[in-house]
Amino acid sequence: MARNEIVERENDLGNSIPGIDAELMSSMKEEVLRARKENIPMIQAFEAVARKSGLKVNTIRNYYYRYLHAHLSKNIGSRGVKRSNWAYKGVAGKSFTEEEVRNLLITILTAQAKGESVRSCANRLADGDPKKMLRFQNKYRNVIAGQPEYVKNLMDEMTQRGVRYFNPYTRMIVDGTEGTSAKPAAAGSDYKNDTAGRLSENNDAMPKDDTGSLIETLGKIITGLEDFDNIYISAFFNGLQELIDMARTGKNNTMEQVTRLEKTCKDFQNKLSRMESYLHRLVEINQRFLALPDADKISSLTDYMNDLEICIKKYANL
């Protein structure tokens, strides 16, 4: 989502968030907007509000996440989508608290950076309980797909704290130190390095404005593929690459075939033109002989036969 769209969304949201003082919320919005405009880490905005209010940074951070949740709820309501469709409740009907969501995401993102899959981590957190495992897994995936801004803010905070985590949108491991480059996930995670390399090469050739949205879309596709136990993401993208290669090869073969057909057609047209010229010559010889008086035909028969012979030899060389 573009930065100016985010700013507009936050400006449109009213100050009536239950449990948050209006003056504190106004200060929080001001600092957050300033951080976004100046492209500085979000944690600095939280620290600035904390200094002004005398509250702890963690408290300000939690208020901000409540703010995002309230904004998301407003958007969902305006589209006529029920809250339950966004999996705010688990299979047992118990809602996740904001702190539980935050801890769940941090745990799974850091576990993926160590090569553990989402399903394996969720199963570990659930102590082997299949219902709890499914609840954790679905909640994680719904937040990743439905609240990318919330997740990105959380990843910014993890970066500032030096936590090594997995970015589900770029499918890269981030070392957690600001300024360091991200690395492809390890071979033991949900996809292979060669697949990441191919995606990276393709992204380099794309317009910069499209690359971010493409990476985010691919992240959502890969997250959805994890729902199927018998599908390996690396195999999926390898198969997709093979289809692209086959299409490219087929296109090249088609172009070669078109070139050959064009040459054959041109040769045929040239031959047809020569045959047309031969036919006209043959008609001309016969018309001239037939136009002679009967008395002259016998004396001109030798010339007529010679002309026919010459014409036939030219035809044989066509």
Mean pLDDT: 73
User: So what's the overall shape?
Assistant: rod-shaped
Specify the biggest β-sheet: 3 strands, antiparallel
Radius of gyration: 37 Å
Give the SSE order as H and E letters: HHHHHHHHEEEHHHHH
Distance between the termini: 69 Å
Strand content: under 5%
Q: What report would you give on this structure?
A:
The chain is mainly α. The chain has three domains: 1-81; 84-192 and 204-230, no CATH class; 249-316, no CATH class. The chain has helices at 3-12, 22-38, 42-53, 57-78, 98-113, 118-125, 130-146, 148-160, 193-204, 208-225, 233-290, 294-299, 301-316; strands at residues 165-167, 172-174, 183-184. Strands 1-2-3 form a three-stranded antiparallel sheet. The longest helix has 58 residues, at 233-290. The chain starts with a helix and ends with a helix. Mean pLDDT is 73; it is low at 1-16, 79-93 and 186-209.
Write the layout of secondary structure elements.
Layout: H1 3-12, H2 22-38, H3 42-53, H4 57-78, H5 98-113, H6 118-125, H7 130-146, H8 148-160, E1 165-167, E2 172-174, E3 183-184, H9 193-204, H10 208-225, H11 233-290, H12 294-299, H13 301-316
Antiparallel strand pairs: 1-2, 2-3
Quickly list its features:
single chain, 318 residues, mainly alpha, 3-stranded antiparallel beta sheet, 13 helices, 71% helix, 3% strand, disordered N terminus
